[in-house]
Amino acid sequence: VTHSIPACIGSMTINSKQLDNESPVSIFAVNKCYVTVQDGTFFDGSGFAVLVRDGYKVRSDVNITLEFRTTAVHGILLGVSSAKVDAIGLEIVNGKVLFHVNNGAGRITASYEPRGTNSLCDGKWHKLQANKSKHRISLIIDGNLVQTDNPYTQSTSADTNNPIYVGGYPADVKQNCLTSKSSFRGCLRNLVLTKGQQAELFDFSRAFDLRGVFPHSCPGAEH
C-alpha cells in the first residue's frame, strides 16, 4: 500500500497509554477532522494535486466533469499542458468559470459568467462539464451551456504530455492555458475525464503528489 488512509483516527492507545494527538513530534499532510463531513476532497488554498505521472494526452477529444464548492472568487480547477503551446485549462477568475484550449494555433476560451459575481462562490456544490471536440469547445455550469467560436478550425489536437494538475500547480511548472496562479480553496468531487467511451474517475487519495489537499474529507461548511 503506497497511499495514506483517507480517514479520521482518534483515541489511539498503545500499551494502555493514550497518544497525544495535539502535539506530535512531526506531522505531514494531516488535517483536523470535521464534525460534519461531506464526501469530497478539500483543497486548503495553498497547493495542488498531481495525477497521471506519465502524462495525460488530451489530443482531439476530452470531456471533463466535476463538482466544486468554494467561497473564493479565484481558483485554478485543472490544467494539462505540454512543453509547447498545446494545453487545456479550467479556472475560476473573478467569479467566472473559464475553459481554455490551445490546439497549437492559439488559445480559445469559453467563459461562463453568472448573474452575480459571488453566485458560484457561495459555498454550495456546482456541476461543471467542459467539452473539447476537435476545434469545438463548450462549457456547461449547473445546466447552463456556453459555446465559443474558434477561428483556428484546421487545428484540432491538443498534444499534451504533462501530468494533470488539479487545484493549482508548482511555480516551476509551465501551464499554457491558465491565466491565474491562485490555488483553489474549497472542495472538489467526482472528477471524471472521458475520451470516447473511456471514462476515468480520479481518486485523489491515489494522486502521486498532494500538497494542501485532503482526500475524501470535505468540511460540512467553510471555516
From TrEMBL:
Ranges for domain Laminin G: 39-218
Gene3D superfamilies: 2.60.120.200
Top-level taxon of origin: Eukaryota
Pfam families reported for this sequence: Laminin_G_1
Name recorded for this polypeptide: LAMA1 protein
Species assigned in the record: Burhinus bistriatus
Gene that this polypeptide is encoded by: Lama1
